[in-house]
Amino acid sequence: MNTQTVTRLPTLWLTAFLIASLSLAAAEPHPDQTARPEPAEGARLNVVLLLADDMGLNGPTVYGSDLHETPNIDRLAAEGVRFTNGYAACTVCSPTRAAAMTGMYPARTRVTNWISGTKMPYAQLSPPDWTLQLEHHHTTIAEALKADGYQTAHVGKWHLGNEPFYPEHQGFDVNIGGNSQGSPSGGYHLPNKIDLPRAKDGEYLTDHLTMLATEWITETQKTGDPFFMYFAYYNVHTPIQGRADYTEYYQKKIDARDPDGPEPIHTNAAFAAMHHSVDDSVGQILDTLDKLGIKDNTLVIFTSDNGGLSHKIGADGVPNPTGITSNFPHRRGKGSAYEGGHRVPFIIAWPGHIPSGVVSDTPIGTVDLYPTILDITGVDGNADHNANVDGVALTAHLKDPASSSLPARDLHWHFPHYHAGVNGPYSAIRRGDWKLIERHETPDQPELYNLKDDISEQTNLASSNPEKASELQKALNDWRTSIDAQMPSPNPNHNPDSPRTNAKRPKKT
Asked: Judging by beta carbons within 10 Å of its beta carbon (0-12, 13-18, 19+), is residue 443 exposed, middle or buried?
């Protein structure tokens, strides 16, 4: 069995799945909102968690893109609460995914890097012996909900270990397209090395996954049981491959720009096309909920696993600051300690139960998803696991954003690794408007920023405000100790003449 490509669909469900798909294909267009069916009285809340890959904060139009068109993500924002200070738990993918499933910081699960990480054997520091899968002793949100009667499905990217750590062993009844891959091997046009039912040559991966996802949601309504669907998009991760029609459309938009106009933020047509496909998917899922009459009884969450990829590495191993996207006005991007690395879109909608069209500046993070979903659904979960959850329930703030604030707390990041040669190991803390970054190669040179006054993190205030720097440094140290965070260690094979990106020791001349 090839553990890189297998996708398991339970036999009985697959039979029903295929029958349902035939009836769906012949179905009439969904009715408008005035004619849609109403949810059954007393029906339990459904949950849809949508997680984009490598989508920076300004990826959707509603968050400031000057190229991408995302009317459905924008629609979701108009129907719920849009957070401007939403943070991924890490600046790379696997740790954030583990945090979403468990409510725990990556430093606690010890899934602190993307699996299987970047190899830099001659860098100054060596990474700790971190964990290469989401271990079974954790209780996932799927396991907690399934134990309380929920139907559960994972769709898309998993990237939390090889077998036996796939979604079907982590509380999901159904696994559609999830395996150990961090990006779609073989590309975004089918067939690729992701085993999917009824895949058609040339079909776009996101379109096909969305079709299967909406069919599954429709099938769940035959049982009357609530459902939890975790749709983790492969988009907009590399390889940068958009649908040809969408790519052509965005290239025409780019070509039509006024050369004397403002400096553009987004300039990549294929990357814009990939955002468009995610937005199509969001729209089809929302329309399916509407058609089935369960939209008002479904909590929908949209966010991303880290910021956009704003740098690339050349063939010679030298970092090139010109990447596929810009996270402006935030500094840098994926893998970075700066805001561009971990500030992401974060939208939560529950029509009729939380306000619509609200913008909240309250800082929240991936770790808050687990306790929020449990709290809103009324599911207890596992008490032993819950005692170690780092996030907080956002329920009260969602229901009354104007007057209900979260308890004062710090947000933390811990990344004891190297990423793509341009980002070294670091820890960071945000307290109020203040953020401190400690780089493990140079721990005596902290960076301190006031995000309210300096969103682009251009002015390091550590020297001019040593009291605040000391306060946050102590808080960061105390947190790392409390969570038993693994630290990098001096590398005995360090070669200062070797670029951090170079996996081979340079030849002597």
From this structure: exposed
